[in-house]
Amino acid sequence: MRGDNAFCPKSGAPLSKNRHYDHCGRAARAVEDDSASRRAGTVGELTNGAQRSSRTALFRYFRRSHERQFDADTALYRTATLALRRLKTTATGRQEWDDIVWFALHARLDRKGHDATWMLAHVDLRCPRCGGRLRYTDCGSGEIFATCVVDCTDDNADRLDEIRTLVANLYAATYPDDDGPGVDDLLTF
Ligand SMILES: [Zn+2]
Questions:
Q1: Which residues is 140 bridged to in the sheet?
Q2: Does residue 182 surpass a pLDDT of 80?
């Protein structure tokens, strides 16, 4: 994941608050020292996170985020591990990015009776076309739209619809026997 919620894409370890600059002046953050980054050998690596993190990293980030607010929950972690394995194996193309996998995981856990609302505070949605940031707008009807900040398709199109479709398609491909969430049930603000 990139942006405010970025983490080490190989281990899931947190990144330093401070930014470091390479000889070209590019900013990056350092992977902090924890048991996961030590195991993966990424302590101190400079990164801004990735659009596509490893399954291990996503799970580690999931668990770390959960434990910041709640007691450890082995049943939840078991379900999440299995779900992540299936989702990551099935995902193709843009579905493979962390934000889409994260929302599909959220839908699966919700389906399995876990309260996964907390997950929504730990993800940044990105433009499905260019990976850029999104700008959220309420057009007065109470419905929230999200447009790409650089307007990469030059039409100010709502990206939330595209994101909902990506999540619903990934879910349906991963769990063909489960009705799953309808597109309209996903990402409602
Ligand atoms: Zn874009």
A1: none
A2: no
**Ramachandran class of 114: left when φ > 0, alpha when ψ lies in -120 to 50, beta otherwise:** beta
pLDDT score of 188 more than 80: no
Write the CB contacts of 96 (distance below 8 Å, at least 6 apart in sequence). Answer: 52, 88
* pLDDT score, position 185: 73
Residue 144: both structure tokens together: 């929230």
Say if CB 153 and CB 160 are below 8 A apart: no
Does the pLDDT of residue 180 top 80, yes or no? no
Domain ranges of the chain: 1-49, 51-189
Ligand 1 centroid – CA 123 distance (Å): 17
pTM metric for this prediction: 0.92
Q: Residue 127 Cα, ligand 1 centroid: separation in angstroms?
A: 5
CA of 135 to the centre of ligand 1 (A): 10
Give pLDDT tens digits for 142-169. Answer: 788 899 999 999 998 999 989 999 999 9
Residue 182 CA to ligand 1 center (angstroms) comes to 24
